[in-house]
Amino acid sequence: MLDSRIVRILQETVGKENVSTEQADRICYSYDATQQRFLPDVVVHPGSPREVSLIMKMANAEKIPVFPRGAGSGFTGGSLPTKGGIVLVMTRLDRILRIDEENLIAEVEPGLVTEQFQLAVEKVGLFYPPDPASLKFSTMGGNVAECAGGPRCVKYGVTKDYILGLEIVTPQGDIIRTGGETMKGVVGYDLTKLMVGSEGTLGIITKIIVKLIPLPEAKKTMLVQFDSIDGAAQAVSSIIRGKIIPTTLEFMDATTIDCVRKATSLDLPESTRAVLIIEVDGDQDLINRQAKRILEIIAPLGVISTQVAETQAESEALWQVRRSVSASLRKVNPDKFNEDICVPRSKVPDMIRAIEGISAKHAVPIVNFGHAGDGNIHVNVMVDLKTPGEHDRAHRAIEEIFAETLKLGGTMSGEHGIGITKAPYIPMELDPIAVTYMKTIKRALDPNNILNPGKVFLEDQ
Predict the structure, then answer these.
(1) pTM over the 0.70 mark
(2) Residue range(s) occupied by CATH 3.30.43.10 in the chain
C-alpha cells in the first residue's frame, strides 16, 4: 500500500471524495475486458489537466507507477494496474468543449463516451465515423490511446485519421499541446500521431481536437448469404475493384453462423457458410445505384439469398444478426481469448482455412467474424478454463494463429493494441532494431518508467 502521506497529497490535489483506498473501489478498477485482475493501491479521479499534472509531478518524484484508465473496455490489458500504484480514472473529464460547425472540428475531453459524442455532432449534421464495438461505453481518450477502429474504417479510416491535436500531460507532469486545428501542419515532429495508439505509455490525454465530416444523407444495408467463405471474400474484392467503397463490409464464417443459428431464431439455412453485411452511405440516388451494382457484381459468387433493408427498422433487424454473435459464443464454451488479427483482404479465406486447421489440431473451438473490408478478423478461441490444460492449449493455438497471420503479410493486432496479453508475441512481428528505437522513445519521455509500465513491451524484451 502507498504511504499515507502520498494518499493525503492526492486528496489535497483532487478532493477527498475523488480518492479511494477502499478494497471495493480498488477491485472495481482492477480488471478490464480480459478479466485479468491486478489490484491498485489507490484510485484517483482527477477533474482537470492541472490536477493530472500535479499528480504526475508527485508520482514521478516519488517513482510511483500511474495507470491511466477510461472505461476499462480494452481486450489486451492496456489499463490494468499490473504494478499496483495509482489508477488514474479520467471519466470526470467528459465534456464536449465545443463543436465548430464552420471549420468541421470539435474539442472534447478524454472521458467523453464515444456514442454520446457521435450523437451530439449528428444533431448538427456532422459525422465522427470511428465506431468501435464498445462505443456505447468506451471513452474518446481510450479510443485515441488504442487507435480504435470499427466496421466503418474500410471507407472512413480509424481514430488516428480524425485526431488533429491533443493536450497531453507528460510523465514528468508538463502540459503540452500537439498538432492544432488546421488540416495541415508540418512544424516539428508529429507528436500527435506518436501519442495516438501509444496505449497510455507516453502521456496522458486531457483534451482532443477532432476532425469531423458532413453527415451522409442516407444509408442502405444488405445482408448476403454465401455458400462458401471464398465466395464472400471474392465478393469483397470484386465490390472494391468495381470502384465502390462501402461504409461497412462485415463477415461471419461458418462457425460463427452455427453459433448464431443455435442461439437465435434467425433464418440462416444450413447451406449458408458465410455472411456479409454490406452497407453503403451517401446521397439517396447514389446509394440506390451502388446497392444495385453491388448485387450485380456478387450474383455469380455463390449467393444463396440477399436481404436489402428499405427502412431504418429493417436495417437494425439485419444488424441484429451481427450483434447477436458475442452473446451466442458462450454456447460454445464459457471463456474466450479474443484476438484481432488483420491480413490483406484477399487472404481472408486462406487465414480462415488455416485457423480451421489450428482449431482441429489443438481441439479448441475457434469462432471468426470481423471487418472483411480491411481484412480484420476477430478470432475467438473458445475454452473452458476450469478444464486442466485448456489455458496452455489455447495459447499454443494463438501463437500458431499469429505465425500464420504474419506469413500471409498481416499483423497480430488490427485495433485492440498490445497491452500485456500480446506483449510476449512482439518479437514475432517487430525486428529487434525497431523495438530498440521504440524503447528509446519510451525512456526519453518517461525516464523513470512510471506511466503505464509493463505495457506493450515485456521488461525483458
Answers:
(1) yes
(2) 4-89
